[in-house]
Design a protein that fits this description.
Layout (H helix, E strand, L loop, with lengths): L5 E4 L3 H14 L4 E5 L7 H4 L31 H14 L6 E3 L1 E9 L4 E8 L4 E7 L1 E4 L9 H4 L9 E4 L12 E5 L3 H13 L4 E6 L5 E2 L8 H9 L11 H18 L5 H4 L11 E2 L3 H4 L5 E5 L3 E5 L5 E4 L4 E3 L2 E4 L13 E3 L6 H7 L17 E3 L12 H22 L5 E5 L1 H15 L28 H10 L7 E5 L1
Helix pairs in contact: 1-11, 11-13
Length: 489
């Protein structure tokens, strides 16, 4: 193995950014990017369901070091975002570094060698093999492992078609009786497409909770705006956590929802919790679609049985019976099981997932590193997701921080390998401060969201400060090397 090799796990926007910045900032070419899918792009390659758009403005959603002046709409569609990923890979000549259809099964640290042994499964040839690396960067994302049937095992005996939005099938819905389970972002996009572009006999939606829904003000982007994206580096300030501003926004959304939705469903649709406690859903024509005669919305906690000789009668937990041909699962992702399904074994063979379970949910120093797991860095790690802003901004800040750490380690190695991990005190204090700050925010364990651990109520995903503070602490403020243990191998 060549020295200082970096293995990046995942070729989504995080993995692409990490590879590009290793080249740009460190002039480091000794890295490989492993991806389980057959394409780069991560969630934008995995999710191909109809009517899929980004729910943050496009100019927030391109790499700062590779801005895209050619967005055609304010909220770009999935094919356009995927092409942006492809363009970045081409521009920085990452193709030779990317290994597609290679799934990481586990990584294990060797203290003796100061190396990670990464076990991969070649999905093309169905065989496993090992790769050794000095450093590992996980770039697996948060929305990558669907709940699917694990959340609804009763549907394993269903007699019709059933699939998750992240595993979309090209299906003819004409004349079919359709059920959609879930009412988050993907359901908001899929439901109006089925009702408006297909001809289903009926569509029943099962919703467990309400969602704040904002209007989808999309428009074509002018040539002048495209020019601005290239010429001007814009800093997008995050709206401060002010009760008055939040209430005004909530009043506007409530008014919008009341004016567009079917009145008989308003009790189900309008949230009883504060705006911001859960991710806001952008309306892709969903609220208007609730007025369709062949649409039914039911609030209940899922399904209780599958019945009938053809196993196509579904009984929901409110006692309603439904004849169904196709079930679409829009029931989200396993966001509280970071790095799944990969296993991670650090010093003394300790399992990272078990450590996080003991702590009531995932946590990491600066959101990128955990004591006991040397030279392992995470993108979209614990408490790095921005509140109401582009996830890509958080990813890029973490990428820059990791490159700063690597630069410092590589400069100290004196021809030998080095290991790096946070001190115990630094890790404990950092995460204590994170959870203390969370108490002052709108997030609460009383409102179930994918940000929080159901069992403990711990918010493991959201950064509790401003985006500027996140940027400054990762990209500008000097690295506090006293918080790190650096050892030569």
């Amino acid at each position: 193995m060549s020295p200082d090799k970096v293995v990046i796990i995942g070729a989504g926007m995080g993995g692409i950014a990490m590879g590009a910045q290793l080249k740009r900032l460190l002039h480091h070419e000794n890295f490989e990017i492993y991806e389980k899918l057959d394409d780069v792009g991560g969630t934008w390659a995995q999710n191909t369901y109809p009517n899929l758009n980004c729910d943050v403005p496009s100019d927030y959603y391109s790499f700062s070091f590779f801005p895209n002046p050619d967005w055609t709409e304010r909220f770009a569609a999935q094919p356009e975002i995927l092409e942006h990923c492809h363009a970045c890979v081409r521009h920085f000549q990452l193709e030779s570094h990317v290994k597609l259809q290679q799934e990481c099964v586990s990584i294990r640290w060797s203290e003796k060698d100061g190396l990670w042994t990464c076990l991969f499964r070649d999905l093309i040839h169905d065989k496993t093999y090992e790769v050794k690396a000095r450093f590992v960067v996980t770039a697996m994302g948060v929305l990558n492992v669907p709940h699917g049937l694990d959340d609804l095992p009763i549907l394993k005996s269903f007699g019709g078609q059933v699939f998750h939005t992240a595993e979309w099938r090209n299906t003819d819905f004409d004349g079919e009786k359709v059920m959609v389970i879930g009412n988050g972002c993907s359901a908001n996009q899929v439901v109006p497409w089925i009702l408006n572009e297909q001809k289903p006999q009926s569509l029943v939606q099962i919703a467990r909770s309400e969602q704040w829904v904002a209007p989808f003000d999309n428009w074509r982007i002018s040539n002048f705006t495209k020019w601005q994206v290239v010429q001007v580096n814009l800093i997008h300030p995050q709206l401060a956590n002010i009760q008055v501003a939040r209430q005004a926004a909530a009043d506007g959304m409530r008014s919008y929802m009341q004016s567009v939705s079917n009145p008989k469903y308003l009790d189900i649709l309008l949230p009883k919790y504060e705006l911001g406690a859960k991710r806001t859903v952008v309306d892709h024509g969903y609220l208007e679609a609730t007025n369709r005669d062949n649409f039914t919305l039911i609030k209940c906690d899922g399904l209780q049985s599958v019945e009938g000789s053809d196993r196509r009668t579904l009984v929901d937990k409110a006692g309603n019976r439904h004849e169904v041909d196709i079930v679409i699962l829009a029931n989200g992702f396993k966001t509280q099981d970071l790095l799944a399904p990969m296993s991670v074994y650090g010093l003394d063979g300790k399992n990272l997932r078990e450590i996080w379970q003991q702590r009531g949910g995932s946590e990491a120093y600066m959101g990128v590193s955990v004591r006991g797991f040397p030279n392992l860095f995470m993108l979209t790690g614990p408490n790095t997701l921005p509140s109401g802003n582009s996830t890509l901004h958080g990813i890029e800040c973490s990428v820059v921080y990791i490159t700063r750490l690597l630069r410092g380690v590589l400069a100290r190695r004196s021809g030998k390998g080095c290991t790096l991990m946070p001190t115990a005190d630094a890790e404990v204090q950092f995460n204590k401060n994170i959870q203390e700050k969370m108490k002052d925010l709108v997030y609460t364990s009383e409102v179930e969201s994918y940000f929080t651990n159901k069992e403990t109520g711990k918010n493991t995903l959201i950064w509790p400060g401003t985006q500027f503070s996140f940027y400054w602490s990762r990209c500008i403020s000097p690295v506090n090397w006293s918080d790190w243990v650096v050892r030569r191998v």
